[in-house]
Amino acid sequence: MEQFKVRIIELLKEDARRTPALIATMLGSSEAEVTEAIKQLEDSHVIIKYAPIVNWAKVDNEKVTALIEVQITPERGRGFDAIAERIYLYPEVKSVYLMSGAYDLLVEIEGKTLKEVASFVSNKLSPIDRVLSTKTHFILKKYKQDGITFEDHEDDRRMLISP
Question: What is one Pfam family matched by this protein (predicted)?
C-alpha cells in the first residue's frame, strides 16, 4: 500500500473526525486526492468502520467485560478458522484473536452481569466441539485502550536514567 494511504489511515486512527480538507493540509496534498484515497480505503474494506473510544466507567450503562483464553483442537483442513467463526458469530463476542503461546484463541465478550458472562462460557462456549478448556478473566478497570488513557494521571515519577 502506498505511503500516502498509510498516512491517511494513521491520521484517521488518531482522530476519525478529521475532515479530508484538514488531512490534505496536514499532508500537503489536495482535498480531492485525500477524498478519493479514503473512498478507495473504504471500498476495499481497509477502513471498515469509524467508532469512538468510550470510557464506559463514566456512563450509567453497567456492563461486564471478560477475556477468555480458549484451548482448542484445530479442525482438519480448516485449522482454527471454523471454530473461531462459530465463536465470533455470537452477539456477546466483541473480538476473537488467534494467539501464540499457552492457549489458542482469546475471546473478548460483554454481558450485563457476571452471571450472564459465566452462562455464556458454560452454555455456549465450552460445549463447542473441539474446545478443550477455557479460562475467564474479568476486566475490573480499563486504564488505557488504543493508546488513549482514561484517567487523569500524575506526572511521570520514574527516575530519569542517563548514559
Answer: HTH_24
